[in-house]
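User: I'll paste a sequence; please echo it back and then give the predicted structure.

Assistant: Echoing your sequence first, then the prediction.
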Amino acid sequence: MNKDLTVGKPETVLWKFCVPLFGSIIFQQLYNIADSFVAGKFIGENALAAVGNSYEITLIFIAFAFGCNIGCSVIVSQLFGAKKYREMKTAVYTSAIASIILCILLMLAGILCCTKLLYLIRTPDTIFADSKLYLDIYIFGFPFLLFYNVATGIFSALGDSKTPFIFLAISSTSNIAVDILFVSTFDMGVAGVAWATFLCQGISCILAIIIVLKRLATIHTDGKVAFFSAQLFKKIAVIAIPSILQQSFVSIGNIIIQGVINGFGSEVIAGYSAAIKLNNLVITSLTTLANGVSNYTAQNLGANMVSRIKEGFKAAIKIVWILCIPIVVVYILANHWLIQFFMNEPSEMALLSGIQFLKIVSPFYFIISVKLVADGILRGAGLMKPFMIATFTDLTLRVILAIILSSQWGYIGIWCSWPIGWSIGVLLSVWFYRKKFCTLHKQ
């Protein structure tokens, strides 16, 4: 059901809208966690390392899917909030056409460049073949990932966060069962893990697109709806391109860091692969909540209700901190069990490196959550330049520090680069939010 985010108490509105988003991304992350779990438990430590190694490259593709989601979602939210329904439908169709072209280009790039990227990040010979196999299958399933993200962006723009949650709850739990079936029964190895994700994401994507089209058909518009608008495409691109660049540079930074980690051997790679899955579960979930804040901001900006944005910021901080408390406690107290969850008989080095990552990084989830909420408001308001500055500062610091500190403290130095980069990034994001929001508020 479509929901107007411009009415009601901001905290209540955000709770009702963002909690299903949080649940959705938890289930979406289960895809990756299931892949690592099945690879580590049913195939072996090298398979876990291969899936984890490939995952850093898949994040580049995810970055484009995320950017398309945000670009479409923010503009559609603004038009929905302003009740410009004809233009809103045109924005949806324009996003779809642009996404088709982008998808073709990315698949070609993936087919041509992924092997070179695996060499570039110094993938060990013991996991190279499985890493390449996983990536090849992933690339052919990319259209499902991309268009599912565009569809969920439209759902969010219309104030509906429950429908994506239902889709992901069903498809992600099915993915676990299919993963185990393909690997343990059909003995397909890493290929089975990749094909299971391909199949389940494909079904989710098709169903999501069908329901989006039906939902749009229920919204009455006067006059003929255009299928493409250069003006709306430009507006979408202004939001989407910086978001894609942000996520892409984060992915490239992570690939560089993965290359540094690969120098410590397959045991550390396996430990990092397990820990980073758990870390990404949290960061991606918080990012999705921030996307909800972007939709909230965009709808209220479209309706010219700027004063509600400041209230929304405070409410969103409260929500993300409440969600961070149990996560941080579990990651600190149960880290040994969580890392072991991904491996049958982990080596001492693999287990230790993963545990140390969680101990060092997880307390700073309270810091990064504030940055992500501030970024969500900047993005929803179309203030992409400050958003990019804060993000690139955080990323650049993390990459540089990972390289420098690893030479002094080993892989522990790499883990320490996360908290330092996040802490400086949050100062910039909050400063930009306060500066830009005050300007908007006066206007």
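The chain has a mean pLDDT of 83. The first helix runs from residue 10 to 43.
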